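Hi R.,

Here's the input for the NAP complex you asked about:
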Amino acid sequence: MNQTSIPLAGVIGMPIAHSRSPALHSFWLKRAGIRGHYVPLEIAQADLEQVIRALPKMGFVGVNVTIPHKEKVLALADVVTDRAALIGAANTLIFRGDGKVHADNTDGYGFIENLRHGAPEWDPASGPAAVFGAGGAARAVLASLLDVGVPEIRLSNRTKARADALRAEFGTRVRVFDWVQAGNMIDQAALVVNASSLGMEGKPDLRVPLDGLTSHTVVTDLVYTPLETALLKHARAVGCTTVDGLGMLIYQAAPAFERWFGHRPDIDEETRRVVLGT
Ligand code: NAP
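And here is the predicted structure with NAP in place:
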């Protein structure tokens, strides 16, 4: 980027109209007084490589990547961070001055930062984590929980083979439970995570027995539409500390913004309101 150019960034995906990232980054740009733009880019699979090669020539300093391109971009990048390789997907591309495409994944970072802020009392080493779901988001959750020293991860997924595959990849600290017995994972768990899409608007709620929850359990849901899922509502009634999924979305965005625009954005209530569109 030369001194006079206006830095551009965006999010590539298909579909993309629902993404809250443009609202978030545009707000941070404005608040920091940076003359840049962040735009949604609807890109078909077949055009992905061509688009990634063209964007740096058009003034883009980087892009976020979302469904369905998160895995495919790894093969198109020149440099892949260890955490993106471990997760098997990238959510952030940085177009470097030397022409190289750098792929990173900040989802795990966003997940942990959100927990640290929302449940400061949570000590990763204090006990097992119970995780529902074994899709792309669960991969980032597992990688980051293992990284911060959670001693055991209990994992359950409707399609058990996907959970078994994660265990094979992430190792023996991961224990797989049958979906019909998923409620058993909660007993003595320090942390409960919904990383499935259950509970999202238009989807059924996560219906597992939650009798094992105590007021000492920290419960977080990656789903943020609605902000308070049935799981979080139940957990709050039990007296658990609950952490909604909106913060993960915001915290994963901050390091990308800093890399592209050279400014670390503040995260506060106003930021949450902007993302919610309220
Ligand atoms: P994904 O790869 O499509 O995985 C979906 C997961 O949900 C799978 O484990 C799937 O189980 C499970 N699932 C879906 N419908 C189900 C049903 N009817 N019964 C039981 N399980 C069901 O999606 P993802 O990318 O991992 O995302 C998962 C959720 O996290 C989404 O709601 C997404 O919006 C949210 N998310 C939030 C953030 C954030 O920043 N807060 C970041 C990433 C994702 P099967 O394997 O059996 O299909």
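One thing worth noting: The chain is about 35% helix and 20% strand.

Cheers,
M.
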